[in-house]
Amino acid sequence: MKLDLSTKIGTVLFKNPVLAASGTSGYGAILNDIFDVSQLGGIITKSITVKPRKGNPPPRIIETSCGMLNSIGLENRGIQYFLDENLPRLKTFKTNVIASIAGNSDEEYAMLAETLNKQVDAIEVNISCPNVKEGGMSFGQELHSTRKVVETVKAVSSIPIIVKLTPNVTRIEDFAKVCEESGADAISLVNTYKGLSIDIRSRRSNIGAFTGGLSGPAIKPLALYAVWKTAKTVGIPVIGCGGVMNYVDAIEFFMAGASFIEIGSATFREPDASLKILRGIKQFLEDENICCLNDIKGVIHEC
Length: 303
Ligand SMILES: Cc1cc2nc3c(=O)[nH]c(=O)nc-3n(C[C@H](O)[C@H](O)[C@H](O)COP(=O)(O)O)c2cc1C
Known about the structure:
The chain is an alpha/beta fold. The chain is built from 9 helices and 16 strands.
């Protein structure tokens, strides 16, 4: 029995469902110094903005119980630098390239999507960054602005559009439904949970920008619940993200209904975590005599 891990978003085929999460693996090249990133299903870039951004003041990352709090503030060198310097190298890897985009307005999202159309395999629309004053998560916390931005991006794109949602809302599945209605080809969730960490001696926040976004094992049960609710609500593929540290976590996400998983914070602990997780998934499926992911997707018994 041959194991087939391939899966699709729209018409784009992914050789397996393990993706490097945005902001945690740069543009692929750094990770490729450690392992062959061509083995992954895809690499999602750090979120790209129209203009270069310096990001937030330090400290930008602090370890918390079972996780980490970050407030990078979308530091990146802008779309032109990405096209000239990062994309050529990214394209040499034999894996799908997903460009994550972040704008301050619908027009900026449209400009980014139009520029990247057909240059990459898919676009992940980040409407969920909790660490910027303008744009970011504010787009993804209102149903009408979510609808508008997805429709705007979809109108200028012929490649698959993935919308990355914030968990900092009451009913994330309602946002997923709006994205599906507006033409999204897949949903990814979750981005980080807004959080705070205080130094009791100085009585200051441990994060330079005061608040940050929580990720890692601490958020896994929350993310898993969000994926389960969303997968029951939409018909398009759901990409699970949040605290996937090993293959068991990954299988849980598939059983909750995810078609793909993204590996984020785990990469900070072990740079080749995504490869180890991919190998663990394969071993588990072989041991269980399962030949494709669909056989375990959403199979959780609810009574
Ligand atoms: C240091 C850091 C930077 C991040 N930057 C981005 C980003 O630029 N765009 C984005 O959509 N998500 C970003 N994220 C969120 C991750 O992609 C992911 O959604 C989140 O960390 C939850 O997954 P995890 O628990 O596996 O890390 C970042 C996360 C971290 C820890």
